[in-house]
């Protein structure tokens, strides 16, 4: 079978080297003679994996000692509920910076558990992040929530907001481990693994210790960061295979040179696509403001949103095994996700096709 170039937004491509490792481990994990899928989560074998994955997270992000690293079920959306359930009790209110679909969903979920202040005016067109001087932050908020990279709209924060001492909570689902981040500037960082660091079924949560022990009485134990921290993320049977996959992906990132290398490659890959868009005289256009264009998810339209032309583009792409390029149903068009596992060569193949399509159809 010819090579598939997978630009899916999630579940997304995994590194080919990791697949080779998983194949070898699948029926004989760590020399046990059996799969991790049939290994007790209370065994020394799993305890070691649990610690190894925490350790690589701590090394890659230089996580300070006063932060706990948790592996929790429910993905990113599970944490949409967990965040207010664990934090909103501090003052009963929270600030949400809505810059796209996922931060909007997080804010909607939080309204079930307390008062939500929308920092930005409501809109149905997400193409920019307004200057922080215009934000309506509440100094009494329990926390400020942002989504650092909006997968659907292709908007990525290029700065860490100054929240004047209020804990900053960040959903990093789709740009986790794509660049270095100063963890000490955040109270909580979380994200589902299936976009950039693993497969579906697990959320990685990094929480500052002073934010524990504040959960609402109604918080389910499975979402309670304090309970899970005390149990070292083995409060119940965790999604062990998803944690194994995430660990192998993070170890692969470390072998390649860590987050500096990931950031270098992200810049190179995204520039290949954005440069073609900019040089196409409007044939391709990206609606997002240049300073906040995502390096992970690149949405664009063709021929002033010519849907027939976009369908032809997608059909031609699939004929070349360039798959999962259709834009999200909320925004339409095309979307190329250039996560860590997507190679420069694959993006070059897409770029070449974009140039040929432009030459054929530009008027």
The separation of the N and C termini measures 36 Å
> How much of the sequence is in beta strands?
5-15%
Q: Write down how many β-strands occur, each being a DSSP E stretch of 2 or more residues.
A: 14
Count of helical stretches? 9
List the helices and strands in order: EHHEHEHEEEEEEEHHHEEHEEH
Query: How would a textbook summarize the main sheet?
Result: 7 strands, mixed
Pairing-aware structural class of the strands and helices? Answer: alpha/beta
**Any idea what the radius of gyration is?**
21 Å
Range of helix content = 25-40%
Taking pLDDT < 50 over at least 5 consecutive residues as the criterion, the unreliable ranges are: none
Shape descriptor reads globular
**How are the strands ordered across the major sheet?**
2-10-9-8-5-3-4
Overall pLDDT, averaged? 97
């Amino acid at each position: 079978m010819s090579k598939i170039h997978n630009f899916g937004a999630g579940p997304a491509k995994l590194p080919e080297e990791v697949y080779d490792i998983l194949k070898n481990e699948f029926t004989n994990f760590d020399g046990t003679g059996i799969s991790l899928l049939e290994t007790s989560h209370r065994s020394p074998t799993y305890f070691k994996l649990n610690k190894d994955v925490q350790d690589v997270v701590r090394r890659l992000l230089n996580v300070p000692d006063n932060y706990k690293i948790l592996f929790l079920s429910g993905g990113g959306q599970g944490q949409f509920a967990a965040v207010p359930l664990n934090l909103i009790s501090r003052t009963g209110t929270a600030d949400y910076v809505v810059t796209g679909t996922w931060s909007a969903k997080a804010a909607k979920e939080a309204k079930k558990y307390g008062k939500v202040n929308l920092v930005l005016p409501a809109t149905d067109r997400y193409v920019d992040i307004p200057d922080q001087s215009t934000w309506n932050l509440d100094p009494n908020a329990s926390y400020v929530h942002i989504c650092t990279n909006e997968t659907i709209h292709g908007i990525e924060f290029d700065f860490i907001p100054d929240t004047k001492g209020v804990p900053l909570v960040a959903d990093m689902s789709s740009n986790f481990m794509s660049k270095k981040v100063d963890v000490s500037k955040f109270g909580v960082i979380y994200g589902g693994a299936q976009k950039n660091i693993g497969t579906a079924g697990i959320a990685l949560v990094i929480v500052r210790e002073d934010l524990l022990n504040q959960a609402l009485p109604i918080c389910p134990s499975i979402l309670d960061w304090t309970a899970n921290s005390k149990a070292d993320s083995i409060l119940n049977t965790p999604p062990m295979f998803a944690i194994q996959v995430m660990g192998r992906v993070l170890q692969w990132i470390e072998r390649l040179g860590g987050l500096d290398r990931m950031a270098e490659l992200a810049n190179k890959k995204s520039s290949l696509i954005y440069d073609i868009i900019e040089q196409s005289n409007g044939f391709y256009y990206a609606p997002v403001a240049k300073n906040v264009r995502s390096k992970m998810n690149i949405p664009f339209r063709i021929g002033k949103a010519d849907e027939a032309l976009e369908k032809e583009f997608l059909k031609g792409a699939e004929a070349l095994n360039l798959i999962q390029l259709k834009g999200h149903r909320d925004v339409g068009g095309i979307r190329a996700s250039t996560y860590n596992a997507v190679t420069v060569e694959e993006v070059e193949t897409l770029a070449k096709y974009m140039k040929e399509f432009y030459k054929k159809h530009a008027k």
